[in-house]
Write a structure and sequence with these properties.
The protein is of the alpha+beta class and 267 residues long. The protein folds into two domains: 207 residues, BirA Bifunctional Protein, domain 2; 49 residues, SH3 type barrels, CATH 2.30.30.100. Helices cover 28% and strands 33% of the residues. It is built from seven helices and twelve strands. The strands form two sheets. The protein has a seven-stranded mixed beta sheet, with helices on both faces. A hairpin with a 5-residue loop joins strand 6 and strand 7. The protein is globular. The protein starts with 5 loop residues before the first helix and ends with a strand.
């Protein structure tokens, strides 16, 4: 399998972003998020950067969970976005990115749901995850770094190692993606950049209804897990305009904020 070609990714960006983004691709790195964060801690980037890799040796998701994929078996990239000032409800940007990724996939006949706050799933199986981090440089300028890992294909060994039900893009497309990896990274990267741009300008309001239309397990009872503890239980009602999950139990509603928590749907 050939190494990703930056020029092909750049060409696959939407017209809105073509020529406005610095595109990089490497065969191997520890983590594309960490690569961009290290730079942004020194100096805020002058333009948005998209960095992709064939394989990440220390890829990670929320709660420091390892991202597992063999070389070329996943679409792995991060974008860094310079920010002049922080928008309110910043943690909800992860949800906004989920919306635009889901809509991008839907436009290519891949129907998905969103598991709050950061997983893209198909029939209860994980297709992709999003990791958003904020960096401040030496003169207090902000940069958002948004990473995406999407399964392309999964061997039985990889399915076992992941430890949760998972699915690959090729299984959904019923075709191979090898020759089109750059095209998919360009499409998905454009979706992330568009979400970040709109969120920085308008906040979560433009995304709230769209997220709720895609919300997995709405109406079902879930346990909210904080570490190894069950912090709350209730029926999923919706996500509010701040990106918080609203659950209801015995007529009482409560909001759950994005953080180091996870959801477990009751059987």
């Amino acid at each position: 399998m050939k190494t990703l070609v930056p020029a092909e990714i750049a060409h696959a960006l939407s017209v809105t972003w073509r020529g406005r983004v610095s595109v990089e691709a490497v065969a191997t790195t520890g983590s594309t998020n960490e690569d961009l964060m290290l730079r942004a801690r020194v100096e805020q980037p002058a333009v948005c950067v998209l960095r992709a890799a064939d394989v990440q040796t220390h890829g990670r998701g929320r709660q420091a969970r390892a991202w597992r994929a063999a070389s070329g078996d996943a679409l792995l990239f991060s974008v860094s976005v310079p920010v002049a000032s922080l928008p309110p409800s910043l943690s909800a940007i992860t949800l906004a990115c989920g919306v635009t990724l889901a809509e991008c996939l839907g436009s290519h006949h891949v129907a998905v749901n969103l598991k709050w706050p950061n997983d893209i799933r198909v029939r209860g199986r994980k297709l992709a995850g999003i990791l958003t981090e904020l960096v401040v440089d030496r003169v207090a300028r902000y940069t958002l770094v948004i990473g995406v890992g999407m399964n392309m294909r999964l061997s039985e060994a990889e399915r076992h190692a992941i430890g949760v039900p998972a699915i690959g893009l090729e299984e959904l497309l019923r075709s191979t993606v090898d020759g089109g990896r750059e095209q998919w990274i360009g499409r998905l990267g454009s979706a992330i950049l568009t979400a970040a741009d709109e969120f920085i300008r308008d906040g979560f309001d433009p995304f709230c209804l769209r997220f709720n239309q895609l919300l997995e397990a709405r109406g079902e009872v879930v346990d909210v897990i904080d570490g190894n503890q069950n912090a709350a239980s209730g029926r999923i009602v919706e996500v509010d305009r701040f990106g918080r999950l609203i659950i209801e139990a015995e007529g009482v509603t409560r909001s759950v904020s994005v953080g180091d928590i996870s959801l477990r749907v009751r059987p």
